[in-house]
Amino acid sequence: MYTGMFALATGLMALRFLPALPSPGWLLVMLMAALLILAMRLWPVGLFVLGLTWACAQGQRALDDRLPVALDGRTLWVEGRVIGLPQQTETSVRFELQGARSRHGALPATIRLSWYGGLPVNSGEHWRLAVTLKRPKGLLNPQSFDYQAWLLAQRIGATGVVKEGQLLAAASHAWRDGLRQRLLHIDGNGRESWLAALVMGDGSGLNRDDWTLLQATGTVHLLVISGQHIGLFAGLIYGLVALLARYGLWPGYLPWLPWACGLAFAGATGYGMLAGFEVPVQRACVMLGLVLIWRLRFRHLGVWLPFLLALNAVLIVEPLASLMPGFWLSFSAVAVLIYTFSGRLGAWDWRGVWLRPHGLIALGLFPMLWILGLPISLTGPLANLIAVPWISLLVLPTALLGTLMLPVPWLGESLLWLSGGLLDLLINGLALLADVVTPWLPAVVPIYIWLLSALGALILLLPAGVALRPLGWPLVLLAVFTPREHIPHGEVEVLQLDVGQGLAIVLRTRNHTLLYDAGPKVRDFDQGERVVVPVLRSLGVGELDVMLLSHADSDHAGGALAVQRSMNVARVLGGDVSGLPKQLRAQPCANGESWVWDGVRFSLWQWPGASDSNQKSCVLQVQARDERLLLTGDIDAHAERALLRSPLAVPTRWLQSPHHGSKTSSSMAFLKALVPERVLVSRGHGNNFGHPHPQVMSRYQALGVQVWDSAEQGAVWFRLGASGKVQSMAGQRRFWRDG
């Protein structure tokens, strides 16, 4: 039984790693093969193929529900109903529209929309909206959040921006949104949004600093409703019934054990519905139901059977759950606890039960966090040592009881006020702890090193006294003392990040790192914080020797402050210093300055006659052996003509397309003088500026220049001075990135 269930789960999870999905014809062949293999009683193989077939069919179904290519980028009038909990901020509202209709053609079942400066939107309302729709798309960078995979896992077939709209019908049956609004408007000691997150799993009210605090202390799971909350609530109900029965207060004609199990499961399911029934809650409810059945009837089944049943149940209902990082972390945490607590001889005392799980989970989850590219909180075990009992025994019971008692005048609000005060004390304590040590993001390593380190973690989780246990430490420490890939002398590694409509390029020699531009900041989206810093840390970069900001426009310099806050920057250079934040302490770009790092020459140029910020762009030439790269910022044709009279006007193999491929740049005279073979274009998919302009692309094509476009290829990297192969994130194929 165990082998078959494990094989079925493996087949369902294999969807996550497929570069492409089989055609409908092949799916039919796979289904017939699975049934034939099962008929031959080869259960593990047959169940694996059956699980893979089901997962692929659901994946294709989700892909087929995406916005048609013909409607990509068009503005349409659509009608539909708002579902879920809209995320309200001071400047915008984000929500999902279901059952959207348009006279221009069929639309996906679910659309995710943003409305900047728009009207308030509530769950359950029917709206008529003018929306600019786009097919699902996300930034593609190494070790970064895959937004496109997340959209597919949520079965969201399109995104869009609302231009205007009108309410057609008020909300109906939107009890979750109504309850959330009630929680947000009570007096919760200033922690109303935190209470809404704890009670309903709605984190939209938490700001960026709040999430940073939770991530830094490894306590995100305490505010995002998880199995811990479900199990605790069910345990409180079960314990209450058992206590009443013990003291003779439970009705004698009702058998207490079945009622305790039934009420506990009903309460947990109700709490799960309140929280939106996400994957961790689904897993918790399934496992809780199996444990309660085990408590009633089947005590001999062991601990791994409920785990495997829950794993398969979640994946059968939604195979795309395997695309979500939360799925892997949720089930991994439970597996670590089962692995460490089951099969032990003797029992731990209360100190061991309280202290050990936090360290064990931190150790067991670190390989999964590492491979998913998520930061690892070094203060997490200590923070959870305090936060888990505080939330479980004090905050959560008063918050749930207060929510339940809201219809009773003053009682419910008083309990929520108390819960908010307790939560405020905890948050202030976590803030002090977060200032001690910042989260750690291990560098990207070859898969065999990760496997060795993960094996070391499993060995260390073995019971004390096992002979192999000491061997786990040197394997785990491979994550800390990772053998770095040494860049040869005279070469430079170039990485153009995918930051949307902006620019950020990382240049690394053997012992030095330079960042050319830091990505854009638009409203609350800071790509310096979201993309540039995580990628630098994943590369093992702890500090920057130079951060060169070509000019002051926000699409080039917007992320600079976030980079400077996150790591030491020895020197900041700027092409338009007067327009940069004073906190950067930027030095002006010195025309003609050059230096050599590890056999690689870097040279600066700026047009003295520049009249605007774009023309003031600080141009950087990089020469490694016989190859050159020219980074041009946003210079236009006038600045290009001036550059042709400078020492940088020499044949250049690599060129960063000036001004993202704008019509006013990349003049034919400029291209013929530099004779580039390859061009880097950094721009946002479907941007409003029309970059790169068709005329510019025609010039590149006429000269036989190969174009590497971040909107199509994602991040691009190569070795200058090695004439090596160019690689891109698009080259790492995943089935959800097709089309």
From TrEMBL:
Keyword annotations of the record: Cell membrane, Membrane, Transmembrane, Transmembrane helix
Segments forming domain Metallo-beta-lactamase: 501-685
Topological category with respect to the lipid bilayer: Multi-pass membrane protein
SMART domains per UniProt: Lactamase_B
Record-annotated membrane-spanning stretches: 32-57, 230-250, 256-277, 298-317, 323-341, 353-373, 385-408, 415-441, 447-468
Protein name as annotated: Competence protein ComEC
Cellular localization per UniProt: Cell membrane
InterPro entries attached to this UniProt entry: ComA-like_MBL (IPR035681), ComEC_N (IPR004477), Competence_ComEC/Rec2 (IPR004797), Competence_DNA_uptake (IPR052159), DUF4131 (IPR025405), Metallo-B-lactamas (IPR001279), RibonucZ/Hydroxyglut_hydro (IPR036866)
